[in-house]
Amino acid sequence: MIQLINIKKMKVHILFLGLSIFSLHAVGQSFTLKQCIDYAQKNNGDIINANYDIDIAQKRVNEEMGSMFPQIDASSAYTNNLKLNTTVLPGEILGQPGTNIAVQMGTQHNVSGGVQLSQKIFDPHFGTSLKATQLSKKQSELALKQTTEQIQYDISYLYYQTLVIKMQMNSLQVASNSSKALMEATELRFKNGMAKQIDVDRIKVSHNNTRSQLNQIELSCKQSLNNLKYSIGMPVDSLIVLADSSFNIEIQELVLATNSSSFENRTDYQLQKLALNSYELEKKLNATGYLPSLSFNAYYGVNAMRDEFDFFNNGDWHPNSYIGLSLRIPVFDGMQRQSRIAQSKLEIEKSKVTINQFQELIKVELSNSEIQYQNAIDNIQSEQANLNLAESVLKSTQLQYEQGTSSALDLVQAESSYRESFNNYYNKLLNYYIAQINLEHSKGTLTEYLNNLK
Predict the structure, then answer these.
(1) Using CA atoms, how far apart are residues 123 and 206, in angstroms rounded to an integer?
(2) What is 16-68+124-291+333-451's CATH topology?
(3) CA gap 265, 445 in Å, rounded
(4) pTM for this model (two decimals)
(5) In CA terms, which of 23, 103, 337, 407 is 20 to 30 Å from 273?
(6) Phi/psi of residue 320, nearest 5 degrees
């Protein structure tokens, strides 16, 4: 008797038998889709680097804030005048009128040191620059969110792909075992004179085709699982088992999303709006270049001069100090600021056009994903009916073959049709899940959808 897979209704767990093969790999850790995503959150390299980018952006904010604190610098200098400078003085100074006298002045060893303090009192750039760095941090946070969403999408795709391949592989294994049993039974009937050699050959060809397809699907399964491991940041030589707890066929009613909500939910759209804000801040920053800036400065230092290097002995140290204000007033820069402001205005207009284009793109993506999802639902339901019909035909043909009223060719053709039907079904099944995550991704709700998985 040929073993057949009984396909249940769509809203029931699909083909638990197809996942029974996972129990053979008990040595590996079991992962649901949600657990794969949680694992990637801590181990995926792109997510880790995106978190570092946020830390870097925060340090830039700190750096900008630090520019308004007092700036203190200490300095010191030592000079050894190997040969003192010579200065020519009029002889009248030394009582020798009419002559010039060369005189070496100064000391061989000079030391000076001091501390300088500067404090910005008014800097028109500061407020805008601080907002720019804070905006940069916000962009880094959104970039992390965008990276995470893309990784979640990739993981979901690979997770469902691997599960479907596993199910398909197990179904092919069952079909191969059934084909092998039929081949052996037909060979026995041939030896007893109850079957023809061509019947044996036909069934053997069908069995070989099934085995060949099974070998190919096993390779595809290994490749898909390796890609999944890479996506979650797991070493490729690790052993894992994909749990089936989140893998159910539950056709959900298509709920059309409103365009306005989809815009704000999309991280890439939020990044476009931040880009517009950054250009506006750049324009404002360039405009502040016309404003004056005021700083306070203070200095205190000492110096000493010796003919011998005896600064650590008793001797005179001469203090000096000053305080002052520094006012900088921009007057003319060759129209550079005006050109930069004009550039910023053009960038703002370009950004507005890009945002409008992006809104239309989101509408197109959302509409296409809704069409794809509805089409996937129709296809999976159609393939479900085809699979049930092919199963029924195979059962009937098998019974007729056992009773001698159907030929081996009819049986082989029924097996081939059934094998093609469940292959088509699994392809449509994968398309359904891809359409589902595409729809959530286009609405900007993929993370929320995955978080609600059990």
Answers:
(1) 83
(2) Outer membrane efflux proteins (OEP) (1.20.1600)
(3) 7
(4) 0.83
(5) 337
(6) -150, 150
